[in-house]
């Protein structure tokens, strides 16, 4: 099996930090680049737009996922930074992955494949093409269902919907590339949306490590999927309907998980 050169792109969050760290730590290939998206890019205008769409119910989820791991951090870094240091790779902040400077940094690393895990920026085809083997993404849903940024919410909101993880090729459309691997995995009964996302990202990390090995051996086989509707961030009505049926975006256990990412005792 040849060793691939891997560029990992992620958005450090409570949902995905441990999973991204696992990919960096456990892959048998050479991690040559780690790019971190900034959840606060766009400043207050971006946050305000999300709150206008989703209403105040979305705020606790945003705090637990993105703010708490940073605000409660007791030491520099976290699991992803620890894994990066062990690899000898310094993560780089990416304000715009498709911008000229980011493209140049990725190209300089000469990756064979680009891996995205909870990365909230859409790569244009020219960036994907930097890697000869293209790109692969971890998505916590059973594609083609629940394409979009909060698939665990939509699975919970549907009630009785199947949960799972898909590893798929990056393509010009969101969560629409050829399927490389898929596994059903049910979170514990009563789990919050945040808890379900954490669990599914961990399942997906192990799958992603296996897919990279298959790519190195030339044995991966993609399967095109039908394109079902895109599921955006939920609006006020969807959140209210889900809350009436007992769906919780987050809870105290999720806050403890966020604290633990920063090295604060549970």
UniProtKB/TrEMBL annotation:
InterPro entries associated with the record: Formyl_transf_N, Formyl_transf_N_sf
SUPFAM superfamilies: Formyltransferase
Positions of the Formyl transferase N-terminal domain: 102-212
Protein name (database record): Formyl transferase N-terminal domain-containing protein
Entries under PANTHER family matching the protein: METHIONYL-TRNA FORMYLTRANSFERASE, METHIONYL-TRNA FORMYLTRANSFERASE, MITOCHONDRIAL
Listed transmembrane segments: none
């Amino acid at each position: 099996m040849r060793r691939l050169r891997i560029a990992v792109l992620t958005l450090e969050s409570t949902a995905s930090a441990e999973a991204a760290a696992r990919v960096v730590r456990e892959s048998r290939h050479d991690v040559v680049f780690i790019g971190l998206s900034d959840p606060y890019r766009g400043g207050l205008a971006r946050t305000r737009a999300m709150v206008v769409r989703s209403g105040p119910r979305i705020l606790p989820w945003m705090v637990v996922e993105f703010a708490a791991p940073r605000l409660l951090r007791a030491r520099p870094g976290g699991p992803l930074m620890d894994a990066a240091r062990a690899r000898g790779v310094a993560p780089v902040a990416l304000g715009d992955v498709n911008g000229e400077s980011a493209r140049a940094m990725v190209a300089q690393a000469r990756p064979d494949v680009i891996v995205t895990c909870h990365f909230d920026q859409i790569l244009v085809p020219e960036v994907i093409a930097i890697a000869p083997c293209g790109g692969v993404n971890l998505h916590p849903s059973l594609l083609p269902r629940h394409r979009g940024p909060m698939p665990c919410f939509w699975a919970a909101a549907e009630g009785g919907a199947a949960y799972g993880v898909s590893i798929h090729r990056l393509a010009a459309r969101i969560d629409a590339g050829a399927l490389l691997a898929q596994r059903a995995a049910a979170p514990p009964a009563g789990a919050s949306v945040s808890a379900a996302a954490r669990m599914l990202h961990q399942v997906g990390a192990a799958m992603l490590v296996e897919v990279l090995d298959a790519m190195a051996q030339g044995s991966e086989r993609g399967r095109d999927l039908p394109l079902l509707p895109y599921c955006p961030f939920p609006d006020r009505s969807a959140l209210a309907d889900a809350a009436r049926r007992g769906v919780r975006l987050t809870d105290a256990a999720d806050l403890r998980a966020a604290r633990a990412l920063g090295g604060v005792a549970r």
